[in-house]
Amino acid sequence: MKRSFGVKVLGCTMGATMVLGGIGSMMPNTALAGSSDKEEGPIDVWQRAAVDYDKVANVQGGFTFTQDTLTPADEVFNLFGTATTTICAKPGYAFDEVTHEDYYVNVGGVVDKVYSIGLDEIERMEAERKDMRCTCGMSPAVAMASVTGVKVSDLVEMAGVGAGANTITFKDKDGYGLPMPLSYVMEKEALLVYQVGDKPFSDGERLQVWIPDTVAKYFTRAVAEIELSVSEEVPEVEGPDADYRAKVSILNTVSDSFKVGDLIAFEGYADDCGTKVTAVEFSLDGGETWTSFDTSSSDAEDWVYWHFDYTPEQAGIYKLDVRAVTEDGTVSPLGSSTVFEVEE
């Protein structure tokens, strides 16, 4: 028995279909018995493909999961470094470069003492290293990264919270930032981050706020000001859009077909931004039946990074669908799929 590995793709592909081996297009272009010679358009291919796949009811395979797998730093920057302000925090490339020595953060507003602190001094403070997710609330993008920075609470303590202050805003060099409840940021132990993995941020951004279980639009880049204020109505922290709850993705693809009896190894993640994922489910018959694997022993702070091994018993063209289920009963609105071919 041969184990066939795919090439792991750490970009996010939720809701998309990846091609495995020898198929040559997003959907198989095989001839059907009784079909005409009329050339098919893309819509025809997609519609026909819905019934083209060979099906296996109640698919069985080996399943394991971990929660300590991290996204490489380069992929984190690729996923979120080009995001627009409307989806995530403003991208780092949009800012002018600032030398390490000239980068300062102002802490002010409703505080006992306004002060400025340089990046050099921030890096000399007691550092915190934490594994944390970064997930867009309005797109499939998600990453799990090891970040290094200082506690926001330490910076706030140095200024002293003024009377009635209940809101905090992290502003970039252009003044962009979203207000958040001060108590929320303190309870979540937010970090002002200067390094992802072993890589510092670019000369344009230098510092970024990271907050556990919080969508990335609050992760202001190039933080230049931390402002405390008094709000009559404390701002609400928004979570992921309903379409992007229970995110799930298959992260590997290959460039060759498989043989009957091969052990095919799939891997990917499931995550719901602070809500526990209690099951990952697989279907090989277009969603007519689902095989559920329990992940209720996982915690909600980290993503569920899963592995699923499947051994095909017959030749054919198959589509594997994956979805996640959370502790509050949410089922992935957008699942993930991959198509693969098995030969005799």
Automatic annotation (TrEMBL):
Residues 98-232 form the Oxidoreductase molybdopterin-binding domain. Gene3D superfamilies: 2.60.40.650, Oxidoreductase, molybdopterin-binding domain (3.90.420.10). SUPFAM superfamilies: E set domains, Oxidoreductase molybdopterin-binding domain. This is Molybdopterin-binding protein. The lineage of its organism: Bacteria, Bacillati, Actinomycetota, Coriobacteriia, Eggerthellales.
